[in-house]
Amino acid sequence: MPLRRDEPLVTIATFDTGFEAGLARGALEAIGIQALVPEDGFSRRGVVATPASLQVFQSDSARAAVELRRMQIRIVKTASDES
Prior knowledge:
- There is one protein chain.
- By secondary structure, this protein is an alpha+beta fold.
- It has 3 helices and 3 strands; from the N terminus they run βαββαα.
- The chain has a single domain, classed as Alpha-Beta Plaits.
- It has a 3-stranded antiparallel beta sheet with strand order 1-3-2.
- It is globular, with a radius of gyration of 13 Å.
- The chain starts with 8 loop residues before the first strand and ends with a helix.
- 20% of the residues are buried.
């Protein structure tokens, strides 16, 4: 699946560890939603578990959020959720 470079990425979920974020990314990619964990590949010396975020393309964000909720994965509150 080619990357869409003309569309912004949005953070839709945060996790306590990169492992958890990677599992959620895999679940989304399994249903055809491209996802990214920006913290992948970054390790902090001596730190075993660091927080990580999950990003998707803006046009996929609503569908991805529905899928994450269906899988009971916590979602980041957005400005529109708070109003």
